[in-house]
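Everyone, describe these structure tokens:
***
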Amino acid sequence: MEYLTLNSGQKIPQLGFGTADIGSYKFTQEVIGKAIAAGFTRFDTASMYGNEKAIGDSLTEKQKNELIIATKLWAGGDFRYSTTMKEIDNSMKKLGVEVLDIYLQHWPVSGQRLDAWKAMEERHNSGEIRGIGVSNFTIDHLEELMAEREIAPVLNQVEFNPFLFQKELMEYCKEHDIVLEAYSPFAKGRKLSHPVLQEIAQTHEKSTAQVVLRWGIQLGISIIPKASKSENIEQNIDIFDFSLSNAEMNEIGELNEDYRIEWDPTDEV
């Protein structure tokens, strides 16, 4: 496993495990168990996913101390200061922890995101959150936040893959010591049969999904693929025994189509 150091000083595995829309309470617990067995030590959840309690209940106290868990503010899009304070408490209770490793704003809610950030900063300063960050923020949103913040976000979690290669945003985050974290790295599997990916995968005797993950690792970003089948979970973490050449990295980087399948925050002012 390779690691990244956040601007908070936290050291995190570069590869994490996404948990959006996994399934029922029991099935979520089964999947978390499979992921831990495969070697994943960092998990991403959110209030919106409705699985914080399932994840918290699936972990022992020892695991909660050893694993890194990130969750996110939603509250139906209500990001007022008072609501944010309550939602932080709710997430801590559901996960069964007294300190949150990483807490993110799930969306750049217009007119409220700075109020939410103030609440998050206070809980960080009190020692209840180790690292605070954002999700789905554009450069404009980040610039607004950076101008007002006391504490810089540790990461910005966004939709990112070879077919939605947000290079300018990635470079902005690197320049400001914010880790860019990729969700939906496979574009829900819709592009994994692309001939460029297939050719590179054959060269390395890997799957196209593994090639995509390796591309992200070598870009220096964080990635949180999601899987529920044991073979896919194990395959996703088996990406540290090969490297892509500069030519292969460039080939993959040229696949961008601005192909977005999730939320588009561009017009959120």
